[in-house]
């Protein structure tokens, strides 16, 4: 069954009294694969709280996100704080399946949130993230076994993409959305990022990964170790006694 027909039948069968429904996800974006599902968002004033359900119907795997007419706003806020606007994206891109006059305003809220972006990192947060990124990099440089390097490089890649995107006021992604967000920010950097990590996986070559991290840190003062502290500040002479 065609996805939009399946989605509309699903809404009619299971949420006939809802005020609005959208279909989002890879099918809507024209990026469907053999494992894609249908993401359906329901807005129903009668439900008391949000819920999420996974099931198969009409030969489609379906994920259903159920909200009342205000509960979605707390998800918008939590997504903004963690800089991963999952629900906002689904609402903004979603195809209308049903609308009793509520969808337009909810879509406007989602689009405003996406345009505003996440909260900017403070200088304190940047300094802390710089320190921990340096720490992971040093672990990677010093690792002497392939097993340890494999674990560390995964952590390093995640820390790098977070640092780059957040210091530039961009949203974060997870999984495939990491690359999509990096490409949206800077396609050349995204290519450099992928090539450095891929080079390590293929050949065990660390140099490109190390150069990538140093390039990312350089505008903020490079690697950070000496002078970093968290919590109560002490004079250096306290540590010399």
Written overview of the protein:
With 241 residues, the chain is of the alpha+beta class. 54% of the residues lie in helices and 13% in strands. The chain has 10 helices and 5 strands, in the order αβαβββααβαααααα. It has helices at residues 3-14, 26-29, 71-81, 86-93, 103-116, 123-142, 146-167, 176-185, 187-203, 207-217; strands spanning 20-24, 38-43, 51-57, 60-67, 95-99. Strands 3-4-2-1-5 form a 5-stranded mixed beta sheet, sandwiched between helices. Helix 4 (86-93) packs across helix 5 (103-116), helix 8 crosses helix 9 (187-203) and helix 9 runs antiparallel to helix 10 (207-217). The longest helix is centred in the middle third of the chain and has 22 residues, at 146-167. The termini are far apart. The model has no long low-confidence stretch (mean pLDDT 92).
